[in-house]
Specification:
The protein is built from 15 helices and four strands. The protein is mainly alpha-helical. It has a four-stranded mixed β-sheet, covered by helices on one side.
Length: about 375
């Protein structure tokens, strides 16, 4: 046993040194768990922020003043009051994305239980902001109208008040979810790529023949590659969570990082085995790249990180239940977003481990076959 442990530790050191001298791969790791996390969190946004808006207040009533006052940062800039003759000019020159026209006698018609119209002029060239912002405007105005009627008409008053609070992300800031999803995707992507590339590197440099003449077996060689990649990815995850997510992005993590790292360790047992399997069937690095692209894209898209798992066809859901990444995405979000403990997620962890054992044994079988043909 001591001999096997010594062989695996020496091979791990060799793998880590090879990765250190591979500047391109090392740069990819650093980029994926630093800059890529920041870009994934901030590049896309599902909420509106600091949108320019103006009002044409033809009513000049208490209700119109309340509606105008309900638009404030961070969703909207402080509204400006303009004349109706300035609408086209300001929309054309891009000064305002939204211009809302409140017609005269608006409050009077509301109190008379009529349905007056409010005109919203939108600069549709700002497509994403225009689409999301129009929904914000409709919701804000509807809420103000409801509050106004409840306070002015006693017949509609009620003692029941519904207050909705979001425990993890009170403002529903998309960057909070984007950063964690990027970490999860990079764990899956890099663990497969690094393990497969390490085997291809051995074959291209001719060092696989050196290993075959040494008193080593396939299990020791494979475990050394798996453990080396696992160590690198786990250290990268720790750096990413503490420095990028909590430090730079100022995103709080709700659950236990130790439990998340343990879950990641179980996942890496499967994904590194997938990478080694790819390395056994690929002849060189370009072939590995093609196989990697064909594998990682559906794996990431269908695991639930980019698309809700429940919205997929039933057949796809049954197939993805055989993939450890599907369980990992759910467990990671439960830990980091909701603070889930081991007693809640242990069944998913058992599933990840069992799938990992199957993947490891299959990859070991293919790896032994590839060594016998060397």
């Amino acid at each position: 046993m001591k001999k096997h442990i010594k062989n695996i530790s020496n091979l791990m050191i060799k793998e880590l040194k090879s990765l250190w001298y591979d500047k391109i791969m090392f740069t990819l790791i650093v980029y994926s768990f630093s800059i890529a996390i920041y870009i994934g969190a901030t590049a896309t946004s599902t909420e509106i922020k600091n949108a320019s808006i103006a009002f044409v207040d033809e009513d000049r009533s208490t209700l119109s003043h309340r509606i105008i006052s309900s638009f404030y940062k961070p969703q909207f800039n402080t509204p400006d009051i303009i004349n109706s003759s300035q609408i086209d000019t300001n929309i054309d020159n891009g000064k305002y994305t939204f211009i809302v026209v409140i017609p005269s006698s608006f409050e009077k018609n509301i109190l008379s239980k009529k349905s007056p119209d409010i005109q919203v002029n939108i600069d549709a060239t700002r497509m994403t902001q225009a689409g999301i912002g129009s929904q914000y405007i409709q919701k804000i105005i509807s809420q103000e109208l409801q509050n106004f009627l409840l306070k002015t008409q006693e017949t509609q008053s009620t003692n029941l008040e519904i207050i909705t609070r979001f425990k993890y992300n009170p403002n529903l800031t998309s960057s909070w979810f984007g950063s964690i999803n990027e970490v999860i995707n990079n764990i899956i992507m890099l663990s497969i790529l690094l393990s497969g590339a390490s085997l291809i590197r051995e074959r291209e440099h001719g060092t696989i023949e050196h290993l075959l003449v040494m008193p080593l077996n396939a299990v020791e060689i494979m475990l050394s590659k798996i453990l080396a990649v696992t160590l690198v990815v786990l250290l990268s995850v720790v750096f990413s969570l503490f420095f990028m997510v909590e430090g730079v992005l100022q995103i709080p993590i709700e659950g236990s990082i130790v439990l998340f790292l343990f879950t990641t360790f179980l996942l890496l047992f499967s994904t590194t085995a997938i990478g080694i399997f790819m390395g056994t069937i690929a002849k060189n690095m370009p072939q590995l790249g093609m196989i990697f692209i064909l594998t990682i894209l559906p794996l990431m898209m269908l695991s639930g990180s980019l698309t809700p798992f429940e919205s997929m066809p039933d057949t796809i859901q049954h197939i993805m239940k055989l993939m450890p990444s599907s369980y990992f995405v759910d467990v990671s979000k439960a830990i980091l977003f909701k603070g889930a403990e081991l007693a809640i997620i242990w069944k998913e962890l058992v599933a990840i481990f069992c799938i990992g054992v199957v993947f490891f044994l299959f990859a070991l079988y293919m790896f032994r076959r590839s060594l016998s043909t060397q």
